[in-house]
Amino acid sequence: MKEPLAVIRPPVALLTMLALLLIPLTCETHAQRRSNARARTAAGARMTRDPEIARMLAEIDARNIERTIRKLVSFGTRNTLSAQDDPKRGIGAARDWLYSEFQQIAQTSGGRMSVEKQAYTQAAQPPPRGRVPTATVVTNIVATLKGTQAESVNRVYVVSGHYDSICTSTIDAKCDAPGANDDGSGTAAVLEMARVMARHEFDATIIFMTVAGEEQSLLGSTHFAEVAKQQHMNIEAMFTNDIIGSSLGATGVRDRREVRVFSEGVPSNETEQEANTRRGTGGENDAPSRQLARFIKEVAATYTPGFDAWLVYRRDRYLRGGDHIPFLERGYAAVRFTEPNENYNHQHQNARVENGIQYGDLPEFVDFAYVAQVARLNAAALASLARAPARPKNVLILTQRLTNDTDLKWDANNEPDLAGYEIVWRDTTSPVWTNARFVGRVTTYTMPGMSKDNYFFGVRAVDRAGHRSPVSYPKPLGRQQRENPSNPPASGAGANTPPPVP
Q: SS3 for 164-184, per residue?
């Protein structure tokens, strides 16, 4: 028979200490304030669900995506250096087919979509340093869905996939290069998004684009981004979809529940002055592209429950790159969508069987339903961006006074359906925004009792239907710069009424 366990009696002093710990404190600790703030503002931080956007997502059809991918594969090769005048094989045949498909889609848009072939001649960049042995025409297919709000029509959102492909050699224009996943998947997603979204109206303009020359060092996207910069095009965000076709990785792991979204933290075009400010105040995780990625994650929680945006805080995969990079280098916010577990046996490989292993980028390795899910997330994010107000401009944290409050100011938006603004914040170690407070149609606000030293803050615009812009991260405005004394910051929780939630 076992001896009974001895009863351990803790010292009275220990019991007294435990009792004191259970007594509510009259002064909130940092942890308590953080927890209570999340409870108070959880509803305000959620994105509003637009029923029409939800209906758009239901129209995206995996069968259309499969049809597009198989059609692209049927051209044999889509190497940028391949034939441009053969109606059945090569990059030219793929180009002409895509142009025809976008033209048919444009006919459903009520005259709001236009389609063009944006072509230029790429000068020779021969190996070993380049991938263009002779001068080559590179053509992007660009379908522009014009916005319907006068104040927003010049605000542009771009989504792309690249329709060129390669086998093992980047300059072999003759070998079969099916390119089902890289990047037939991204091209098919863009085409399907255009098919669905062309029939709907958006405040801002959306460009659906398939580019060539990606495998020859991002040629088509670089040309488009440079032309956009020279024309002062107001591109607020750019998505590229590249290798979004397989839910099954090389390790045997199948993941149909998420897609990676790559975003840079330090802007590619950052100046030395901006770098000095960032080093002094933080913000290496708060570039516009990172705010765009966080926006996409909120969209996923709202419109594609069960299918998440896995945020990867890198510009791209390790020592690799995609068509968003030319946009980043020119100061545009841009992100890359890519499947979670790549299989390199099916990328940049001649189609063959070796030791019982099938190599090559073939359609049997594409999960068409998975591509449709990625397309839905893209479409939901694009539609949400194009129906929301623009992100606030010239957002500043005022630093003229030493205080434990945080003073913010920004320029007023000009959209007629603007409801107001939200202040968002998070702990400095949090990867995403965790709290939000609606403050109405003001352009200054003070967060009382919350020090800018302890949190990251941002501002986003909200319209009357509840559409929210991405967050704008503030820059510091120091004592040496004067403020208008007649426009002091508002303060407190605010008596403004938040926008209605459908």
A: CCCCCCCCCCCCCECCCCCCH
The separation between CA 268 and the C-alpha centre of its own chain, rounded to angstroms, equals 16
Token pair of 126, please? 């021969």
Q: How far is CA 425 from CA 134, 227, 274, 351, 497, in A?
A: 53, 36, 22, 50, 20
Residue 90 has pLDDT above 80, yes or no: yes
Q: Of 222, 243, 211, whose CA–CA distance to 125 is shortest?
A: 222
Q: What is the DSSP string of 368-386?
A: HHHHHHHHHHHHHHHHHHH
Q: Give the DSSP H or E segment for 361.
A: none
pLDDT computed for residue 497 by the predictor: 44
pTM, entire model:
0.88
CA 332 to chain centre: 12
- Distance between CA atoms of 295 and 482, rounded to whole angstroms? 33
Q: Which amino acid is at 363?
A: P
- Distance between CA atoms of 166 and 179, rounded to whole angstroms? 7
The alpha carbon dihedral of 312, 317, 318, 322 has a sign of negative
HEC states along 74-115?
CCCECCCCCCCCCCCCCHHHHHHHHHHHHHHHHCCCCCCEEE
DSSP helix/strand/coil, 398: strand
Q: Band the pLDDT of 2: cuts 50, 70, 90.
A: very low
401 pLDDT tier (thresholds 50, 70, 90): confident
Q: pLDDT digits over 117-160, tens only?
A: 999 999 999 999 999 999 999 999 999 999 999 999 999 999 99
Nearest to 388 by CA among 157, 91, 168: 157
C-alpha to C-alpha distance for 81 and 132, rounded to whole angstroms: 7
Check residue 55 and report its DSSP letter. H
Average pLDDT score over the chain? 89
At residue 64, the pLDDT reads 98
Q: List, in order of start, the domains of the chain with CATH numbers.
A: 51-387 (3.40.630.10), 391-502 (2.60.40.10)
300 contacts: CB under 8 Å, gap ≥ 6: 307, 308, 309, 377, 380
Q: CA–CA separation, 77 vs 360, rounded Å?
A: 12
CA distance 383 to 55: 12
What is residue 149's three-state secondary structure? coil
Check if the beta carbon of residue 211 is closer than 8 Å to that of residue 224: yes
Residues in the chain: 502
E strand or H helix at 330, and its extent? none
Answer left, alpha or beta for residue 481, where phi above 0 means left and psi between -120 and 50 means alpha. Answer: beta
Q: Check residue 21 and report its DSSP letter.
A: H
- The partner residues of 261 in beta bridges, in order of sequence, read 311, 337
Burial of 351 (0-12, 13-18, 19+ CB in 10 A): middle
Q: Report how far residue 387's alpha carbon sits from residue 391's, in angstroms, rounded to the nearest whole number.
A: 12
